[in-house]
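S.,

Sequence below, as promised.
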Amino acid sequence: MTHSFGEITIEELKPQRVVCARVISAQPEDDSISLVQNWLAQHGLSVEGRRSFGFDSMVSPAESEVGLRGYEIGYVVPEETKADDGVQIRTYGGGMYAVMRVNNAFEAPFESIPAGWQHLMGWLESSPEWMLRCYTCYEEVVAGKEGNDLILYEAIQKRK
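The prediction came back faster than expected:
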């Protein structure tokens, strides 16, 4: 399969206040999204037009052996939002990121998404100006021309 990636840009990602949940399951992306979207609906907050960011989270070797994976999703919320019922309030982002779009990422997600991260990391390894910053990287689902695209955010810093 041929993967289609957008141009890599350098962007500042302002801190985002999110309501989030981390789930370990066989389908943690779907399960965490469902949990937080249900919470938003129960609290009168629409998902429509609300930015969300997600990332893989670690699982134990025992969990991995039985096919479990971890994922955390966070939806941007107003300052006055308070967490309850199994969700947390956190701040995502803050700083400089190498950013790249994976076009039609969900046609073959277990191929195109890892390939996108590999492409972005390869670019970063060869960059004379930027290097990896030890910080959480994010994924953001956005509408694309042929289905949903995925925007990848890799935390970076200037090389010394």
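The longest strand covers residues 147-158.

Coffee later?
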